Amino acid sequence: MDGMIVNTYSPKDVKVDIGGYILVGWEDISISRTSAGFIPVRGIRGKHTRVPSLDTSASLTITLHQASPSNDVLSAIHSQDLVKGTGRLAITLKDYSGRTVISSDEAYILSYPEVVFSRDFEFRAWTIFCQSTSEYTIAGNTKPETPLVDAIVGGIKGIAGNIF
Predict the structure, then answer these.
(1) Per-residue pLDDT at 149
(2) Spatial separation of the C-alpha atoms in residues 52 and 121, rounded to whole Å
(3) Would the pLDDT of 153 be above 90?
(4) 22 in a domain, yes or no?
(5) Is residue 123 part of a domain?
(6) CATH number for the domain including 65?
(7) Distance CA 5, CA 62 (A)
(8) Which of 76, 117, 131, 139 would you label with 159, given CA atoms 20 to 30 Å apart?
């Protein structure tokens, strides 16, 4: 049955929800954790160990077409944050063609993007800092075909959640 599976990535199925608004007109999205999951501790006698990091913060960069109405939304959010300090955002990135999900209820826009005007079409790169992430699942785009695969994936999540 594995020979019949076709992994499919569809950019139109990647959605970024910021406080209920779905961003439109994005060119690319990148996200990375601020800290590694473990900090290695080197022992003086060659025996090493590791310490898990409690830092779940992440940085999200979204590049929008210059004509995207999402620039207006992000600009208004950041402008109000600068004046009133009201820029705390709930943000969720979800790949509906796969299983990747990243979310935070403690995010804010760091600054306005660099603005370039030229004879060509330009882009605006917005950086959003997530002080913590409530979910950070990086997954593929294969859809499980059987309840057995769903149970295995669910079991791995359960085991991983109980390690720490």
Answers:
(1) 63
(2) 44
(3) no
(4) yes
(5) yes
(6) 2.40.30
(7) 31
(8) 131
